[in-house]
Amino acid sequence: MKKFLLTAFFFYTCFAFSQDKIELSPNGFPTVTIVKPNIPLENLIEASKSWALFYNKKGADVYEVTSNSLKIDALKPSAFHYYSLGDPYFFTVKYTLAVEFGEKNYTLKFTVKEIYMKDKLIESTIADYFTPEGKLKEGFEEIKPSFESTVNKMISSFATYIQK
User: Fold this and answer.
1) Are 69 and 41 in contact (CB under 8 A)?
2) DSSP letter string, 96-107
3) Domains held by the chain: number
4) What is the Cα–Cα distance from 43 to 59, expressed in whole angstroms?
């Protein structure tokens, strides 16, 4: 019986986290829907709060907490980068992760609120790195894969953490 439960858990975990990787567009990232674990809602909300502090070592603001949702604001250092003439440029983002638990699934919405370079707020948005046709502007090709990697790791971390 123990072997069966372990095998079932393994397949459930693989299935639950096998979602497609989300991609960056000029509008930001799409909302992600994940199968909700069979854990009481109160525990999922508390686990989400705990993850916010675990994942964001320099602190996070958890707010708009309801019985089935919450928002997390934090800074993500080195969220994305690009190289210009061989010099690396790393950006920190202030983000909001909106979490909403439904009956069978939950959604995560990652939104960029501010972008910083060397602790200085810059006057650009994600859309500024794209052309009007939705293609990355020349010289900024590294932004998309580096930011997608960051956000996909964050989502995977959240999903794994609240599963416990």
Assistant:
1) no
2) EEEEEE-SSEEE
3) 1
4) 21
pLDDT in tens, 26-36: 999 999 999 99
Q: Which residues contact 151 (CB under 8 A, 6 or more apart)?
A: 22, 24, 29, 110
Contact 48, 36 (CB under 8 A): no
pTM of the shown model = 0.86
d(CA 22, CA 157) in angstroms, rounded, equals 14
Handedness of CA 43, 46, 48, 50 (dihedral sign): negative
Assign residue 56 the CATH number of its domain: 3.30.530.80
pLDDT band at 19 (very low <50, low <70, confident <90, very high): low
Separation between Cα atoms, residue 10 and residue 37, nearest integer Å: 13
Domain of 121?
2-163
Tokens 């123990």 belong to residue: 2
